Amino acid sequence: MSTESPQQKSPGLRMGRPFGIPVYVSPTWFIVAAFITITYKENVQISLPGLNEVASYGVAFAFAVLLYLSVLLHELAHCVMAKWYGLPVRRITLYLLGGVSEIEREPETPGKEFMVAFVGPLLSLGLAAAGFLLDVFVVPEGGILGVLTWQLWVANLIVGVFNLLPGLPLDGGRMLRAGVWKASGSSGSGTVAAAWGGRGLAIVLVAVPFALALMSGQAPATPFVLWSVLLAGFIWFGATQALRSARVRARIPQVNARSLARRAIPVTPDVPLAEALRRASEAKAGAMVVVDHDGRPIALVNEAAVEATPEQRRPWVTAGSLARSLEPSLVLPADLTGEELIDAMRDTPAGEYLLVERGGEVYGVLTTADVNRVFSGV
Questions:
Q1: 257-374: which CATH topology?
Q2: Helix (DSSP H) and strand (DSSP E) numbers for the chain
Q3: What is the arrangement of strands in the sheet containing 352-356, beginning at the earlier edge strand?
């Protein structure tokens, strides 16, 4: 599960909107589908020796599709529970190593965090149990349906159990995070504990095929090693991102609009940039607000545009030509702090924002660059 900025390029082929949640298939899914089809085809021929090669590939591909349908149901369980708690869900993406539910906001309590995480493995284990019962009591042995049913319930069992392992970014890691959060009262402490659990799992995953080979006295199977390394890399990367996210969130309370604001001077649109910069330097101001002839703010001079203007051209360029019109969303209360400030900036990405007092008086200018510096080195 993850959070991202609203405007993003489509992650792949859109497949539908179950429960109102857009579902996409990443191009990387076709890579793993081909890999599963090729590697599983040999098992199909062993289990169903009467099938020709083309039919064996067909059954293997059907298994790949059904496996990812199971993954989709797993992710839908997360999303439906999140929506039940009022959390906005952007989309589900099926990709190389499974699926990702993009939930835009984290649960407010450890209990909700636990439940959103737990329903995914619970559904996978439920599918495994249903498949097992079908395999034992309903589906006849020896046919294509029997082979697929057996493989699918085993695969769902593995997916369910694997996702319960206590390390981020797995569901078990989020459950561990919820537990530590509940015990310590700090979501950040929960994230750090679960992320280090994920790093430990990654190391274990890489070691497993070699340990088994050492115990058996045989060389480790290459596909087993590749999958172990791939999964370990995925878990290590996810755990590292979670640690970074925890460090970022720890600094959010330091984001204070008033303390980060720059003093601003008013300039009319026709003032040459060189003159506007001279006035700003003289007033020891770090920003310029374009005002109309009645002194009302109408635009903010863009710092990046100023820096990109060669010094020899600055006497001939007006401040107004390098300014962005002051839309209502670019005017923020000067007393915003923490997540409220971050959310307001995320809603309308810009280089500069005008800060005003509750009575409407201009307090100063807040730049995105100054806010980003709070998080530099994280």
A1: CBS-domain (3.10.580)
A2: 12, 11
A3: 331-333, 352-356, 362-367
